[in-house]
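FORM 12-B: Structure-to-Sequence Request
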């Protein structure tokens, strides 16, 4: 049975399009995460630490090495307050 060589051109185009899209998507995700890989299967504690890091640094993937938090952190709370009448 002969090989249909003319089918290899569309197959190569489709493969190249999927590879380019996947590479672009991964590059964009890494750029959003400060060049680090995407995190999967996060539990509640890890989400809580990511939120704490976001409140401390402004980005959820960065961390600080200062032993004392900045003074804005005292009023930058996760808990939303309601206006009491």
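FORM 12-B RESPONSE
SEQUENCE OUT:
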């Amino acid at each position: 049975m002969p090989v249909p060589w003319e089918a290899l051109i569309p197959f190569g185009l489709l493969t190249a399009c999927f590879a380019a899209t996947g590479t672009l998507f991964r590059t964009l995700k890494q750029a959003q995460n400060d060049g680090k890989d995407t995190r999967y299967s996060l539990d509640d504690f890890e989400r809580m630490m990511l939120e704490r890091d976001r409140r401390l640094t402004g980005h959820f993937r960065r961390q600080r090495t200062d032993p004392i938090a900045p003074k804005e952190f005292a009023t930058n709370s996760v808990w939303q307050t309601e206006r009491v009448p």
